[in-house]
Amino acid sequence: MRIVIIGNGVAGITAARYLRKLSDHEIIVVSEEAPYHFSRPAMMYVSMGHMTYDNTKPYEDWFWKKNRIELVHDAVSAIAPSFSSGDEEGFSPGKYVVAMLRGETIDADTIIFATGSEPAWFGWTGEHLPGVQAYVHKSDLEALERNVQGARNAVVVGGGLIGVEAAEVLHARGLHVTMLVRESGFYRRVFPAEESDIITKHIAAQGIDLRLSTELDRIVGGENGGRVDHVITSSGERIQADVVILATGVKPTIDLAKQSGLNTDRGILINDRFETSLPNVFAIGDCAQFEHGVEQLWYTARAHGEHVARVIIEGAGPYVRGTYFNSAKFFELEWQVYGEIPADSDSTTSEYWSELQPIRCLRIAHRNGVVIGIHGIGVRLRQDVCTTWIDAGATIEVVRKNIQSAVFDPEFTRKVTV
Amino acid sequence: MNYIELTVPDSMRNHGTMWSRWKSRGVPAYLLALLLTGFYVLVYWFPEPLAPLASLLDPLAQLLRGSAADRWFLYGTVYTIAVFVMGARMLLRYRTQRYHVYRTLTLMTVQLMMSYLIPALLARMGSKEFYFSYFWPLKPEYLFPSNISALVQSDNGLLMFMGFWTITMTVVATPVLTYFYGKRWYCSWVCGCGALAETAGDPFRQNSDKTLSAWKIERWMVHSVLASVVSVTGLIWWANVDPASPIAPYAQDANKVYGFLIGSVFSGVIGVGFYPLMGARVWCRFGCPMAAVLGLIQKYASRFRITTNGSQCISCGNCSTYCEMGIDVRAYAQRGEDIKRASCVGCGVCATVCPRGVLKLENH
Fold first, then answer.
1. What is the DSSP annotation of A96-109?
2. pLDDT digits over A5-52, tens only?
């Protein structure tokens, strides 16, 4: 059997690795983005000079050949059902021909879409001006290198995880950064008021000009060559910008899937075994949409990749996502979350502890005394301990008393005293 | 809460490291490597040009040792100054991380006391110039029969103490401490080579080779050096027990060859000279027999490991990039596996640079 995986991000690559672990099938991974898998979250470290691009590759280049995973650096132009001249009808159900942009075609018995996501822009005036970019794709890395040359002012639009990374990168490159954030506090959609306040102030303290409750109205080019010159905010303010990074979220990349006749909505529609509307075609990672919606995290993409391999090789049952977790870093502040921390958490629905110098805080959210989520800023927390508590419905008293056993801070770090 | 209070010092950022010509093998790095190797060549084999430099230190040498400054005093002084100057940088850079503050202060103190002041004072007292922080097999001669029997059978209490210290540290403390804490108790907290690597070498840690082939070479080399030092020590003992044996005349020659190739060329010239090119742990990784012994204990009989926090790894590679021992930390972290590698010196920088709080040094 030949399995063609479209996309070499973490979802596609994890699928390839597990397919190889579990089977002897032929595996081909196609990517137009990069010849080898790299870690997308590491892009910012390349832009800041912490790492080289090569450092972001989790596997040495020989790894793929050794594990008989064929890599094709090309774009897929079309996918069509296979018509083999041999059989009666001339049609082999569930078999496909994958056509590449450069003309090559590959016969496939199974296809996995792992095409990821792309920037969600909202048709702003001037969004295609030179100097305006996203920060998602490998080509954005190269665009950033060009755009920061000689630039002094930057505007980042979006108060999410990519927005703060973009701001950090531009700031590290010596630009004056203004950040437009729709909410009244940074990440307020996700964070309770106290945490949002801490992060908001921390970002401002780095020297970022943070504009809250502010949206982008339009982007205006200069006279010379039409490069971006400034932006106008929703309140009509004009902000100088030689670089604009639009970090207003991402949407599933589904053009190829649509053309190939797959059922799509926001993403490629799948069931809980990653099966699409066509036989032997699967979709995983950012591009896939379950009945309950999309899961667009690094961790879920990895989990999808592993599970789809088990479905294909072992006939595994439904994918069950474990207790939610995530993490991020806002400049110097690390954040880890397990379970559910409602953005409207307050003293009646959660226990909150915080200290300054250095900034650390911890929140244990509960529903009628049963813990539903734990998160920390500046405090590292053990995933297994937190998840076990949440899954077992541990009470707030138990968690508070044993919180030390969940702390994953380096040795000699001051103890957390909830 | 004001904005000042909420500012965390940007202590551990590695902004621009990969563009720095000093830190990323540019021309200045090669010139520095040349300068360092040149200095070691002079110190070991052609000391005459250093004499005027050494004589500048005469007053200090008279004060500490009670004798004129020779090249070794010059070397020790330069070494200790390097550890302190770059140690101060280290303390500033990692000031928010107590693990780094404590171990750097310990390394600086041990270097100053055990490798510089105490040996000098011992010399001044006319006693044996003894380094309490070095043991066999890093200092092979400390377990040679001539040395051991002279110390242990001495009627001088201080010399007897040195003898028992050497034996106890080598035979008892080393395995016991390594069992509980891993090899880091020595390599990142006590050792003088470690002191220089962890201070002066910190800017160059990203230059270590992370490839699988480098790991293979490392295992062959470091264990070959260990086998050599065991053989040399064995030969010396054999010659001592049975002076009439046909082997006996060659024992001292073997020791001299080992001392030249490993003690001088490898640990000194290459070990420090190649800092800017291959990271600060070239000697510790590829050559040090003490690291080899500690590594074997660490790998097969130690509670120490670097643990991975569930599935939080984003495979970014900061850990691997900044591992001075060239361990591909990410390869383990992204699989959710604990890291138990013989070479890990437990510097803790992987855990520090991890942006997702995935790694932790633990003694389980």
1. EEEEETTS-EEEES
2. 999 999 999 999 999 999 999 999 999 999 999 999 999 999 999 999
Cα dihedral A313→A319→A323→A325 (10° resolution): 70
Contact B321 A50 (CB under 8 A): yes
Domains of chain A, with CATH numbers? 2-118+251-314 (3.50.50.60), 121-248 (3.50.50.60), 325-406 (3.30.390.30)
Q: Do A336 and B318 count as a contact with CB atoms less than 8 A apart?
A: no
Residues 153 through 192 of chain A touching chain B, CB cutoff 8 Å: 172
Give the pLDDT mean for B110-126.
96
Distance in Å, alpha carbon of A123 to nearest chain B alpha carbon = 31
Whole-number pLDDT of residue B201: 97
Mutation pick from A408, A409, A413 vs chain B, by most beta carbons of B within 10 Å, is A408
Task: Tell me the residues of chain A between 249 and 288 that have a Cβ less than 8 Å away from chain B.
Answer: none
Asked if B18 reaches chain A (Cβ–Cβ under 8 Å), the answer is yes
- Indicate yes or no: CB of A51 within 8 angstroms of CB of B317: yes
pLDDT at A94 over 90: no
Nearest residue to B46 (alpha-carbon basis) of B264, B288, B256, B196: B264
Of all residues in chain A, the percent with pLDDT exceeding 70 is 98
Q: Between residues B13 and B147, which one has the greater pLDDT?
A: B147
CA dihedral A339, A345, A348, A350 (to 10 degrees): 40
Instruction: Identify all chain A residues contacting B17, using CB atoms and an 8 Å cutoff.
Output: 49-50
**CB contact (8 A) between residue B316 and residue A45:** yes
Instruction: For the beta carbon of residue B336, count every other beta carbon within 10 angstroms.
Output: 16
- The predicted model gives A396-404 an average pLDDT of 96
Q: How far is B49 from chain A (nearest CA, A)?
A: 40
In three-state secondary structure terms, B284 is helix
Give the dihedral sign, CA A272/A276/A278/A279.
Answer: negative
Q: Alpha-carbon dihedral of residues A250, A256, A257, A261, nearest 10 degrees?
A: 150
Model confidence pLDDT, tens digit, residues A188-231: 999 999 999 999 999 999 999 999 999 999 999 998 768 999 99
% pLDDT > 70, chain B: 97
The model's confidence at residue A358, banded by pLDDT at 50, 70 and 90, is: confident
Residues of chain B with C-beta less than 8 angstroms from the C-beta of A331: 8
Show which of residues 315-334 on chain B sit within 8 Å of chain A, judged by CB atoms.
315-318, 320-321, 330-331, 334
Domains of chain B with bracketed CATH: 23-131+141-297 (no CATH), 305-359 (3.30.70.20)
Give yes or no for A298 touching B (CB within 8 A): yes
Contact B54, B73 (CB under 8 A): yes
